[in-house]
Amino acid sequence: MMKLRALTLAVMLCLCHFAMAQKTDLSYYLPQNVTYNPNIPKPQDLLGYQVGEWHVSHDQLATYMQRMAELSDRISIEEYGRTHENRPLYLLTITTPENHKNIASIKEQHRQLTAPAASDKLDIKNMPGVVWMGYSVHGNEPSGSNAALLAVYHLAAAQGPEIEKLLQETIILVDPSINPDGLNRFASWVNTHRGSNLVTDPNSAEFNEVWPRGRTNHYWFDLNRDWLPLQHPESRGRLAKFHEWKPNVLTDHHEMGTNATFFFQPGIPSRNHPLTPANNFKLTQKIGGYHAKALDKIGSLYYTEESYDDFYYGKGSTYPDVNGAVGILFEQASSRGHAQESSNGVLTFPFTIRNQFTTTLSTLEAAQAMREELLAHQRDFYKQAIKEAKSAPVKAYVFGSEKDHARAYHLAEIIQQHQIEIYRPKASFKYDNVDYTPENAYIVPTNQPQYKLIEAMFEKRTTFQDSLFYDISAWTLPLAFDLEYAALPSRSFKDNQLGEKVTAPEMPKGELTGGNSNYAYAFQWHAYYAPRVLNTLFEKGIAVKVATDKFTTEDGKTYDYGTILIPVAGQNVSPEQLRTILQEAAQNNSLQITALATGFNPKGIKLGSPMMRTLEQPKMLLLMGDGVNSNDAGEAWHLLDNRFGMKPTLVTTDRFNRTDLSKYNVIIFSDGSYNSISRDKLKAWVQQGGTVIGMGDAVKWLADSGISNTIFRKTEEVKTQKRQPYADMENTAGAQGIGGAIFETTLDLTHPLAYGYTDASLPIFRSNTLFMEPSKSPYANPLMYTPKPLMAGYSSKQNLKLAQNSAAIEVSAIGAGKVISMPDNPNFRAFWYGTNKLFLNSIFFGQIISGSSARADEDAHN
């Protein structure tokens, strides 16, 4: 009977809360005893509905923000970028009209806090604090952006001495939608599936959006991992504004599982990055007290110092910590629609919005009360950074590439955007048998305010206080770009080695050399954008060949494996037109193309040799849809489409079985499971000569389906004789995963999949525990893990043992076709430039790999 009464009471409470949610007005959200200016429109005045009744679309959100800036003298608005889908990204500046009149000088004075030479002279007692409010970087975590409507209304319309004092002492920056493309995708889905009478059943379509869902941006990237790599326009525009202002506090409003409550930082103390000062954690704790008080007042459950961490500096709530600010992560249990049943009752969309708005206000309250502490922390952070830099053993980092200036340029471009000073060497010098020149190298001196961020970019950390990570454990940027680099000690670096300061890195120009040719042109495959040039030639119908061996021309220049040859005769364009095409391609892609007068080379193969293989243009099918890891598929799509101008056909897994595969010669399987597609159809296509590229768990699916011959190493169970505490079970199991680390591999530089590489040692990113056994065929594994593979990041001893001397790539021969298996992701988050060529080589050169060099069926079954 008591159980029945409890159940009845719970149902009644849920229904009461649900009914209230359907009638929500502004009084549900706004603080009591505050009067509002009637001349400032409420959100419903412009939207036509109450906040939380529908999910705001990005165009509605943008219109409201623009209108508020027009009507309120407390608000200014600026567009800081455009998304891939051409939606505007806005930043609102909210403060008193008096502060607005002096905003340039306030901004400049605040920036001087980060300049140790000037910061001691500043009067922080009379300096405003700067708070950045960032909402809904994940589009299907919409309570943040919908709370932004309330935040801007409150800050524009609230009246009285308290709000005036807050605005006088605080510059408030509001980014109402960090991910407009994802937000719009999600809002469209849930609004389309909302009935007049709200359905709360979790099985309803409203709560189960279709692939790829609204979390990500246009190319299915998680923008909350892009603060450091800066591979997307949303991130680049936002970071420019971040450094223009150097905020003291930055909030990052997210959502989590429906059955959770509300989380605010700090996270797990042992998982803070060691470069973050201890005072940051103390300030975060103190700010947390304000959140707790505010949530207690409205009766919302919450927790802190659990689940989440502050380790990877590429996240929105962690990047500020290495820039003298305090980043705050909020995680609200998600209704994933308008109202959904949960273990805590019916969770309504208005309830989620109210918690986000409430903690917006508690953040502002804390920032105002702690203003001098926060300003002093920022000043002291940079003073301490300079102090550490002066005593640090590393005085500069140098990086570059002799044969591929584009990769070095792109890393320099990222570094410069983080307000880090970067230079060209004044003169050529050698270190560790590597030549660095003003043309091919860059130097980053460590004695500068951004010292801690520089260390975070370049360090190779392999020891940690904790063995669990919410995100990746390593991201060493020069390793990601596969560049030659070195940490220079004081005996090897002096300031007079610095040459031209790089204020705006420019893409190096290529050139066509050797004059006109009536015979042939050639370019080597070393350059990062060589595949883009080859694709351009294919698009123009120009016939090309690839050299599968080296050759030396009359002028003594040696051409490497993978050199692309363009004969002049037999083309569908005139020699003059061909030269113009090649000249433009060379200039735009940081590439040297050379005119050749004869095919009679003094050394190596001749230009008419059978070792010059004719290439067929790749016709690519990229699988997407249910079962596919959207992040990994998006990374492949972005690389091909956005960076290399290629045109993969995107086909959903549910359409594969009725798709005519004869139109394609390459099929790309990103990480995922593909149980819905026809194995027989795929295998028959491969046997007829197609190339399959499998990555991540797709490698396992291909092997299990009999479409590759790969064999995997088995993970041994960790045996223990002692009884272990139940409370430690999750952490013990988690420590056996690889959240993201950097491993060393070795390349066979003669293999088509290694064309363009010049160093047999290749850093590779790994985030799974799928390890392949080497093939008995001596030619089937062009990439192998070394005996001591860990370069940076965390790995358990068990996983290190599995990785040692395992295969990193395997080529299987299936009839006339090939299956190229890559357990690791060569396109990780778009900044892993160093392994992109492995993926692109698979697309362009998989067709020429000899079947006898691959693992065959009999090898697999021996």
TrEMBL record:
This is Zinc carboxypeptidase. One of its GO terms (biological process) is proteolysis. It comes from the Bacteria. The keyword Disulfide bond does not apply. Belongs to the peptidase M14 family. SUPFAM superfamilies: Class I glutamine amidotransferase-like, Zn-dependent exopeptidases. Keywords: Carboxypeptidase, Hydrolase, Metalloprotease, Protease, Signal, Zinc. Transmembrane segments: none annotated. It comes from Pontibacter arcticus. One of its GO terms (molecular function) is zinc ion binding. Residues 54-353 form the Peptidase M14 domain. It holds the Pfam family Peptidase_M14. Residues 1-21 form the signal peptide. One of its GO terms (cellular component) is extracellular space. InterPro entries: Class_I_gatase-like (IPR029062), Peptidase_M14 (IPR000834). Its cofactor is Zn(2+). The active site is at E331 (proton donor/acceptor). Gene3D superfamilies: Zn peptidases.
